[in-house]
Structures are given as C-alpha cells and as structure tokens.
Amino acid sequence: SYGDAIIAEESEDYEKYAFLSALDIISVTEDNADEKVSRARLAFIAAKAFCINSENGTNFMNYRDVDENTPYAGAIDAISGIRAAGGCDGYFYPNRTALTGEAVKIIITAMGYDFKAERLGGYPYGYFAAVPEISKGVNVNAENELTLGTLAKMLYNVFEKPFPEKYITEGSIAELHHTYRRSGKITGNRFTRVSGSGTPDGFVEID
C-alpha cells in the first residue's frame, strides 16, 4: 500500500532541478534539501509553480493567525482560495512544518485532479493515487515532515503532466511557464556557433 511503501536511499542529482530555480519556483541543492518547509512557504512555492497571483494578502479566509504582516499571506489566500489548503478551527498554522500529504493535496488540487483523488479515497492517499507520477522516488508516508528536496522532486515529477481535459487551465505546469522540452544537437550558444556569431544571452541553437 502507499502508506507502507519504502523508498531506497539513492544519491540525488540536484542539478536536474536547476530549471525550477531558473523559473523562480523553488531552489534546492544538496545543502538545503533537508530543510523543513512551513505551511506558509509551501503555499508560496505552490502559488509560484501554478502562476497564481499572490500579491494581495487580504486574509479573506479570516484565519485567526494570519494578517497582512504574515509572511506569504497573499499565497495563503491564493492557495486557500482554490480549496487546495485550509486551516483548522479558524487557524492556518502558517509556521507549522507542512506534511508531505499536505503538499501532495495542494499540487494535485492545483493541477485539477482533486475530483479524481476524492473518488480514489480522498486525503491523503487518494491524492497520491490520482497522479502516481508525483510519488516517483518519494517516501509516500503522508505524515512525513515536508522538506525542500521532497517538494522539488514532486514538482519535477509532474512538471510536464497534462492537466485534465476541460480543466479551467489548459496545458501543464511547464506550459504555464512557457517551458518546452526540445531534443537535438546543440549547434550554438552565446559564446560560439557552428556558423556565424553566438546566440543571444540565455539562448542556445539546436539543429
């Protein structure tokens, strides 16, 4: 079962997550991969991943422990607004360390697979089952405290996963960020080119 799954420890290649940092979603390295992620910071990273406007922190959910001075208040509003996260007894607990299950629920809901997740049993493991790719290489114990490394891995796993048909947003996380995978032989960069001068800064040429 999902709850009993054990993932063998493997040497992680953190370079593969560099594009997530370049897109200003999440920055993870070997040095900070084990850093715990608060519920407020999780909301902030998720809002950036899904290009959800989080500029205005009005606390429309009326959380008793959130106000305009709370870090990431706008993101808490935004993520709560799409029903991806919520509080308990009127509190959001922004400084509490988030759980892996909470992160999965936010990501799956923002992707539009929450209805499927509920049909598969709901929180927490119906959300893992709704998009199995999310748990690749992840310890899927929903009660584990969330780390930057685990969050980056889950976003990486579903980065190109298409949203469901007829969802309010078309495409995928990749398309939200106008990011597309291309393959081929690199024939030029900003320093040199097979023919002519180099490419503009930040661009490469592929045959």
Summarize the structure.
This protein is mainly alpha-helical and 207 residues long. It is 31% helix and 2% strand.
Give the tags.
207 residues; mainly alpha; globular
Verbal overview:
- The chain is 31% helix and 2% strand.
- It is globular.
- The chain is mostly helical.
- The protein has a two-stranded antiparallel ribbon with strand order 1-2.
- The chain has helices at residues 18-22, 39-49, 73-81, 100-111, 114-119, 125-130, 148-158, 173-176, and strands spanning 186-188, 205-206.
Structural topology:
Elements lengths: L17 H5 L16 H11 L23 H9 L18 H12 L2 H6 L5 H6 L17 H11 L14 H4 L9 E3 L16 E2 L1
Antiparallel strand pairs: 1-2
Strand content: under 5%
Strand order of the largest sheet: 1-2
Q: What would you call the quaternary organization?
A: single chain
Low-confidence spans: 1-9
Give a quick account of the main beta sheet: strands, pairing sense, barrel closure.
2 strands, antiparallel
Counting DSSP H or I runs of 4 or more residues, the number of helices is 8
